[in-house]
Specification:
Helix content: over 70%
Strand content: under 5%
């Protein structure tokens, strides 16, 4: 399970309650964490990046006058909801596999497959074949057990 990621995001939720809360600083660190977990194209990054105060609102004027962040602050409520939903997603589905991990696996397999097998798999990946997975598995089965074991152990070590 994604315990480290969840703990990190829960810390970010707690920071929303700080007296000297700085939205821009909070957004920057949150974006770094989310990009690491979900990749740079995640919609979560866009939602956090778009959080902003409306400087013409009465709420902001009240905050400036009292020095307190309202419990009804819409930006903080929205930030909390985004991160809460993200934590729920991590608890339910775990950390998503990134393209980097797929690329790494593919490169390890390429080292063990023949050029012909690599081309066959590349062609299968481009097709919308219903039986694509079993065909790829059939090609991978041609790899010697020792070579496959070596590739899997490289994956586990990294």
């Amino acid at each position: 399970m994604a315990e480290k990621e969840i703990a990190l995001l829960q810390e970010q939720i707690e920071k929303l309650n700080e007296k000297k809360f700085d939205l821009e600083a909070w957004k920057n660190s949150t974006l770094i964490y989310l990009e690491r977990i979900f990749g740079k194209d995640s919609s979560k990054l866009r939602m956090i990046a778009e959080l902003a105060y409306d400087y013409s609102s009465w709420n902001l004027r009240d905050t400036a006058a009292t020095g307190k962040i309202s419990e009804k602050d819409p930006v903080i409520i929205q930030a909390r909801e985004i991160l809460s939903a993200t934590i729920t997603e991590l608890k339910t589905f775990d950390v998503p596999k990134t393209d980097f991990e797929k690329l790494k696996l593919w490169n390890l397999l390429k080292d063990e497959l023949t050029g012909k097998s690599v081309k066959e798999i590349e062609n299968l990946l481009q097709e919308n074949d219903f039986d694509k997975a079993s065909k790829i598995a059939g090609i991978i089965e041609t790899v010697e057990k020792e070579k496959l074991a070596a590739a899997i152990s490289k994956i586990l070590i990294d």
